[in-house]
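Note to self: keep these together.
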Amino acid sequence: MCGIIAFLTQEGCSDSKTPDLQAALKQIQHRGPDGDGIWVDSHGQVGFGHVRLAIIDLEQGHQPISNETDDIHMIVNGEFYDFERIRGELEAVGHVFKTKSDSEIALHLYEDQGLSFLDTLRGEFALCLWDSRKSVFVCARDRFGIKPLFYTQINGRLFVASEIKAFLPLGLKAEWDVESIVNSGFTAGSQTVFKGVSNLLPGHYITATRSGVINIRKYWEPDFADKNIVETRSAEEMIDGVRSRFFEAVRLRLRADVPVAAYLSGGIDSSSVVAAATTILRQNNPNAKLTAFTISFPHGKHLDESDIAERMAKHCGADFKKLCVSEADLSAAFDDAIWHFEAPVQELCGIAKYLLSRLVRDSGFKVVLTGEGSDEHFAGYSFFMPDYLREPDTSFNCDIDQRLAKLETIETSHHPWFDITQRDMSYTDAIVSRRMLNGISTHRVLASTWCLPNEMFNDAILKCTGINEPDPCMAMATTIDGVARRKAKTKWHPLHTALCIEQATTLPNYICIHEGDRSEMAHSVEARVPFLDHHLTEYVNQLPPSVKIKYPIEKWILREAMKPYINEELYSRIKHPFIAPPAENKNTPHGIYLNKRLTREAIDAIGWIRWEFVEQMKANFFEHQSRRAQNILNMILSLVVISERFKVKRFGQE
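Structure:
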C-alpha cells in the first residue's frame, strides 16, 4: 500500500524541465511514511514516484521496481492476494524476482501475458508501468475502485497520481469543473470537481505513447444472472458457495508481515469479517485473537452500535477497542478530512471513519479488514426493495404474495423501505432514465441523496454550461454503458440492474473513497475488503435475486452462510446503515460551525452557488431541523474547504 505519481512527456510538451516528483510525493507522504523512491528514464521523458507503507517484504519491497533487464518499470499502490502461488508459477517458467513483495508479480505477469495480465490480478490496486521496449505507458485501476487513480495533462505531459493534491507542485492550477459539477460527474462518472482532472474508472486501464496517443479501455465489468434461465442449484448449495468463497477471501487478506486488525460495527458485514478471520486464525493457533475497532456516538444513542459490536466481539473472543466520537470531534476534523477526500460529503460518517483510522494507527496497526461492499452485492440497502418487487423471480420460481400491492405501498407512502426518496425531494422522476433502466427507482434514490441540488446553481454556471435543467437521474443512468443497459432490459432482474448502478456510482465514488481509502490512508492505514474479492462477487452476481432478498429479509444468503459463526443478535438484526449522528441543531458544535463557515463571502469566493439557496438551507436546518438541509450544507461546506485548501480559482474570474 502506498501513494504513487507518474508522468509521461508527450509530443508538443512546452515544459523542458523534469517534473519535481519529490515535491509531489510530499503532498501524499501520509500514504507511505516508510520510505520513498523515484525513477526517471535517462531522457527525463518518463518518471515514477512512490511513497511506501510497508506491509509485505518489509526489508526489500521498495519501489519503483523493474524486471531483470531493466526495460520495464512499475509502481503499485495496493495489495495482490494469492501472490505466492502466482509467483511460484512464474518462477517455474523462468521469471527471476528481485523481491519477495506481492507487487512484483504484476510486472512479471505483464511480461508473460501482455495487457491481459490484469485478468490474473486479485485484490485492490492502482498501478503504472513503462515498457521501454514498446514505448508504451500503462495505468490500471482495480475492478471496484477500491484504490484511487487520477490523471491530468499539464503542459503536454500526462500525469497520474493516487491523489489530486499531488498534481499541485507539478503545475496544476485548480479550477472548478463546472460541467462535471452541474452534470454530477464527480458522483456518477469519471470527472472530479477539478477542471482537467479525471478519475480512472474501476476496471479500466490507460495506454499512452510519447506521440500523444491516449486510449482508455475496460478490462472488467460485472454481469448478473440471466432471469430467463431457471436456477438448478439448491439453496444449500448456493449458501455453501458463498461461505467457501467468502472464507477464502478473508484468508487471503490475513496474509501480511505486520499485525492485522478489523473494523467492527453493529451490522452483519463487519461481524462476518471478524467471525471468519477469527475462525481462520484459530485453525493454526487456538488462542489467536483479532483486535476489533469500533466507533461509539454518545451524543447519538439511536445511531450508536457499539454495544452490539462489543457483544459480537465477545462472541468471537476478539479484543475490543472503542473510540467515543462527539459531535465536536466530527466538526473539528471536518476540514482536514475533506482535504484528504478531495470531494464533497453529505453526511459525517466518512469523518468518523477518518477519526477511527487514526486510533488504528496509534494502536500500532497498519492493516484492517473492513465490511464494505457487502450491501452492494447482497442487496443490503432498503431502497433496493422496490426494484426487487418489480418483477417475479422466475429463475427461482419465486413470486411474492401480493407483490405489486406491496410495491405500490412502498412507492406511494412514507414506508421505511422507500422513505429516502421522499425527504425534501427536489428532483422529478426522470421518466426517460427509468425507461433506460427497465423501470428501476434506485438511480433516483442515489441522485436525490448524493448529487448537488439543481436549485443550488446560479445563472452564471448554467449559462456557461448551456444546461438549463441538470438531470442527475440521467447522470446515474448513463454510468453503465449501452451493453449493460440492453442486458437490463432483456436479461437482468430489476434488482440486479439496481445493484449494477450502485456498484458503478456510490461504491467507487463514495464508499471506497470517503469511508475507505481516503479516511484510512490519511493515517497510513491499509484497509482490505473481503466482500470486494472478485471471485466472490462474480459468484454472488450470478445468484438469483430471491436468495439475496427473501422478502422481507435483506442479505438472506449471507445471513445463512454466516449463521454458524455470528451470534443470534446479528443474524436476526435488520440492516441499519452506518451513519454518524448529524448536528442536533444550530446551537450544537457542528451547527455552530456550519453557520460560522458558510458566510456570503465564502460562497461568493466559489462563484457558482446561489447565496439565497444557502440561506434557505440554513433556515430549513436551523428552524426546522431538516436532515436533508443539513446534508446539503455539509456538501456546500466541503466545497468551501476545497476552495480554500486547494486555492481554487473563483468561477468567472479572468
